[in-house]
From TrEMBL:
GO terms for molecular function: carbohydrate binding. InterPro entries: Peripla_BP_I, SBP_2_dom. The keyword Signal applies. Residues 52-305 form the Periplasmic binding protein domain. SUPFAM superfamilies: Periplasmic binding protein-like I (SSF53822). This is Monosaccharide ABC transporter substrate-binding protein, CUT2 family. It comes from Faunimonas pinastri.
Length: 354
C-alpha cells in the first residue's frame, strides 16, 4: 500500500489509458449514471473527510500528501472548506466509529481506504443514505452503496508480473515467489492473478513461496533463509516493492548473483535494480489514488456524473523508463514509492469527462 504534486502526464500512463479506452468503458457501463448518494442542499465550499485505516506506512504518508495537496488546490478554487483526517491505527471497528463521527458532523464527502472489505458496509451505506458522497479507493469494501470505487486491478498486477517472468525465462526455470501478508486483499489478489499464467507454463517450477509484511527487513530475512535451501534459482516473482528490495539485499549478503525479478515502484528496489544491473519489471499502486478520490467526490457534489467504478491502468516500469523514475527519486522518501506523474487532466480522463 498506497504524496503527490500536480504534475505533467507520463507517456507510459497515457498509453495505458488509451489502451483501456476509458471513454468507451464509461459510456457502455450501466453504472455510469447520475452520481449515487448525492442529495440534499450541499453547496461549496465542501467539508471533506478522509477515513484512513492507518497512517504509519510510508505509502500511506505519501497518499496523505496527495490528498492534502488536492484539497489545498480545491481550497484555492473555493470548492473545499475543510479536510478532516482520521487514523484507525489498523482497527476496523475504530474506523467505523470515525466514519460515524463524520456522518454525525454532516460532512459533504468521505473518502475511505478500508480496513475491512465487509465490516464497513453498514456505516458506508448509512453515509450514502444521508446524502454524503462516499468514495472508496485502494482497499475496497464489498458494498456498492456508495458514490464510487477507484482502484487498479490487483489480479492483472499479478498476471502481468508472472507473464513477464515467463517471457524473461523463455518459459523454463526455477523461481521463488514472494507474497505480501496472507489474508490482505491486495496481496491475495496479486497472487491469484499470477496463478493462471504459472498453470499455463509448466516449464516454470515454483520451488517455494513465502508471505511477509510489505517491509524490507522481514523480506530480506525470508529470502536469506530461502536461499540457503534453494541456492539454484532463475528468478524471483516478487509481488511487492519492499519485498523485492529485501530479496536483492539478501542476494548481495549471500554473494549470490541477482536473477530476474519483479516488483513495484519502491524507491530502494528501483535503485538496487539499476545499481546491480538487474533484469527487472515493476508496476505500481499510485499514491495519487487518494487525490483522485477527493477530486471524484467533489465532481459528484458539483452535480457531475461519475462512474461507479474507475479502473486505473497499471503503469509499467522496465529498463526503457526506469531512468525517468530515478531522475525524480530525490523528491520521494528513501523508504517511499516513486509514483507516476498526475494532474487534473488525467483525473478528468479517468472519470471520462471533458
Amino acid at each position: 500500500m498506497r504524496s503527490g504534486l500536480s504534475q505533467t502526464l507520463s507517456g507510459g500512463l497515457l498509453a495505458g489509458i488509451g489502451a483501456l479506452s476509458i471513454l468507451a468503458f464509461a459510456a457502455s457501463s450501466p453504472a455510469f449514471a447520475a452520481s449515487n448518494c448525492i442529495k440534499g442542499d450541499r453547496k461549496p465550499p465542501y467539508k471533506v473527510g478522509w477515513a484512513n485505516i492507518y497512517s504509519v506506512p510510508t505509502w500511506m504518508k505519501q497518499t496523505e500528501g496527495t490528498i492534502t495537496k488536492e484539497v489545498a488546490d480545491l481550497k484555492k478554487q473555493g470548492v473545499v472548506k475543510d479536510l478532516i483526517i482520521t487514523d484507525a491505527q489498523g482497527n476496523a471497528n475504530t474506523q467505523i466509529q470515525q466514519i460515524q463521527s463524520m456522518i454525525d458532523s454532516n460532512l459533504d464527502a468521505i473518502v475511505v481506504d478500508a480496513g475491512s472489505s465487509t465490516a464497513l458496509d453498514r456505516v458506508i451505506s448509512d453515509a450514502c443514505d444521508k446524502g454524503i458522497a462516499v468514495v472508496n479507493f485502494d482497499s475496497l469494501v464489498d458494498t456498492d452503496k456508495l458514490t464510487a470505487k477507484l482502484n487498479t486491478d490487483s489480479n492483472e498486477w499479478g498476471r502481468q508480473a508472472a507473464q513477464w517472468m515467463v517471457d524473461r525465462l523463455g518459459g523454463k526455470g526455477k523461481i521463488i515467489i514472494m507474497n505480501g501478508p496472507a489474508g490482505v486483499s491486495v496481496s491475495d489478489d496479486r497472487r491469484k492473478g499470477a496463478q493462471p499464467v504459472l498453470d499455463a507454463n509448466k516449464g516454470i517450477q515454483v520451488l517455494t513461496e513465502t508471505n511477509t509484511e510489505y517491509n524490507v527487513a522481514p523480506a530480506q530475512e525470508a529470502m536469506t533463509s530461502l536461499l540457503f535451501s534453494n541456492p539454484d534459482i532463475d528468478g524471483v516473482l516478487s509481488l511487492g516493492g519492499a519485498l523485492s528490495a529485501g530479496a536483492l539485499l539478501a542476494f548481495d549478503r549471500q554473494g549470490h548473483d541477482p536473477v530476474p525479478i519483479t516488483g513495484e515502484n519502491y524507491r530502494q528496489f528501483l535503485e538496487l535494480w539499476k545499481k546491480e544491473g538487474v533484469k527487472g519489471w515493476a508496476t505500481m499502486q499510485p499514491n495519487w489514488l487518494g487525490a483522485l478520490a477527493v477530486y471524484t467526490a467533489v465532481q459528484a457534489l458539483n452535480g457531475k456524473d461519475v462512474p461507479a467504478y474507475v479502473k486505473v491502468p497499471l503503469p509499467v516500469i522496465d529498463d526503457s523508463n526506469i531512468g525517468s523514475y530515478l531522475d525524480r527519486s530525490k523528491d520521494f522518501p528513501a523508504d517511499g514509492y516513486i509514483y507516476s506523474d498526475f494532474d487534473t487532466a488525467l483525473f478528468d480522463k479517468l472519470l471520462a469527462q471533458k
